[in-house]
Design brief:
seven-stranded mixed β-sheet, Leucine Aminopeptidase, subunit E, domain 1, alpha/beta
């Protein structure tokens, strides 16, 4: 158990953050249609989806990395939070996806990783619950810096509230 990674709450576009890796809360088939996945594909390029789909299907609790195409990040870590495109997520799926993402990040030797609110969009899990699970899981990670990213001001307030409640120091940034 190392020291807690530095937590940075970011109001902005996850495809614009400067981080070694960004996490795509994927479906098990790694099709990148809507939400965060769609934004990653639009900004980073179709090759990210092609590369990911060559490694599909994944199980919940597994993660793979691909290149990040035209994004600033080095890698996109794809970790399923739903079975099928547009499917529902659950706290168990989110926890498994976050654990798998952090483990993959450690294997890659990255220093920083950026998460959206996993499973909270199409997946339907409340942002508050998603953030609590992410923060619980990063406590044991040797990764130095974790960015929690949202485009939504209300969600940023939820990120702050949950972090404060859990006693985790953070800084806030815009992209």
């Amino acid at each position: 158990m190392g020291i807690m990674p530095r937590l940075i709450l970011v109001l902005g576009d996850i495809t614009e953050v400067e981080s070694d890796a960004i996490v795509n809360p994927a479906n098990v088939f790694l099709m990148m249609g809507g939400g965060v996945a769609g934004a990653i594909k639009r900004k980073g390029g179709e090759e990210i989806e092609r590369e990911a789909m060559r490694k599909a299907p994944l199980k919940i609790g597994e993660a793979i990395e691909t290149s990040a195409g035209k994004l600033k990040a080095k890698y996109v870590i794809h970790a399923p939070t739903v079975e099928s495109p547009g499917g529902s997520s659950s706290p168990e799926y989110i926890r498994a996806a976050v654990k798998a993402s952090l483990k993959k990040g450690e294997e890659l030797g990255i220093r920083s990783i950026a998460f959206p609110a996993m499973g909270a969009g199409v997946g339907g899990v409340p942002v508050e619950e998603s953030v609590r699970i992410i923060l619980e899981e990063i406590k044991a990670s040797p990764i130095e810096e974790v960015l929690l990213v949202t485009r939504n001001k209300q969600d940023l307030e939820v990120f702050k509230r949950v972090s404060e409640y859990m006693g985790i120091p953070f800084e806030v940034r815009g992209v």
